[in-house]
Specification:
The structure holds two protein chains of two kinds. By secondary structure, chain A is mostly beta strands. Chain A is about 0% helix and about 55% strand. Chain A contains no helices and eleven strands. Chain B is built from no helices and eleven strands. The chains are: A mainly beta, B mainly beta.
Chain lengths: ~110, ~110
């Protein structure tokens, strides 16, 4: 099983809403990642969790709050987002060793209205 | 800071032609990754190039890595319409789980 599963696939939320994105993998990977991808741009790293601990936060605004409850699950909690936060949010996982291959989920297409 | 630069950023070509996408990077680390992305979809892993001189082929795509020149190429042979997509190269900037840095992507359109 080399699958990373993201839910929901699509999400429309208002600027005052609170919502969460979910990512799950059962490959035994101990590093998990959130990337944000705007239209016609490359993915940009947001957060890295290594052994369930936050190891990298790429200066992401606090309206994005990551959580890694266990080694298989990664959440991204969203609150008071802006329309410019509309993007494709990609989750990935890998072994937490140097330069190991990352496997990407199918993404959540987020629209903030 | 790691820089990953791709060129061209946009490529329109005819079916049956050959072309090469270039990926330059600024670190001395070994591995390099190529991904394909269709519109509205996620990233599909194409190639993992592990070390200097690595060459991998899958169908009409062939990727190579020259770590001394800090250059990877993705060569398309006898292009077909189904290869139309955006192609990204990517690298890790350091040790451990530090996330990938992507090139800007090459938007490839193959016309009949």
């Amino acid at each position: 099983d080399t699958e990373v599963t993201q839910t929901p696939k699509h999400l429309v939320m208002g600027m005052t809403n609170k919502k969460s994105l979910k990512c799950e993998q059962h490959m035994g990977h101990r590093a998990m990642y959130w990337y944000k991808q705007k239209a016609k741009k490359p993915p940009e790293l947001m957060f890295v969790y290594s052994y369930e601990k936050l190891s990298i936060n790429e200066s992401v605004p606090s309206r994005f709050s990551p959580e890694c409850p266990n080694s298989s699950l990664l959440n991204l909690h969203l609150h008071a987002l802006q329309p410019e936060d509309s993007a494709l949010y990609l989750c990935a996982s890998s072994q937490p060793r140097r330069e190991t291959e990352a496997f990407f989920g199918q993404g959540t297409r987020l629209t903030v209205v | 800071e790691l820089k990953v630069e791709q060129n061209p950023l946009f490529l329109s070509m005819q079916e049956g032609k050959n072309y090469t996408i270039y990926c330059n990077y600024s670190t001395t680390s070994d591995r390099l990754y190529w991904y394909r992305q269709d519109p509205g979809k996620s990233l599909e892993s194409l190639f993992v190039l592990l070390s200097n001189g690595a060459v991998k082929q899958e169908g009409r795509l062939m990727a190579s890595l020259d770590t001394k020149a800090r250059l990877s190429t993705l060569h398309i042979t006898a292009a077909v319409h189904d290869l139309s997509a955006t192609y990204f190269c990517a690298k890790y900037s350091g040790g451990g789980a530090d996330g990938l840095t992507f090139g800007k992507g090459t938007h490839l359109i193959i016309q009949p």
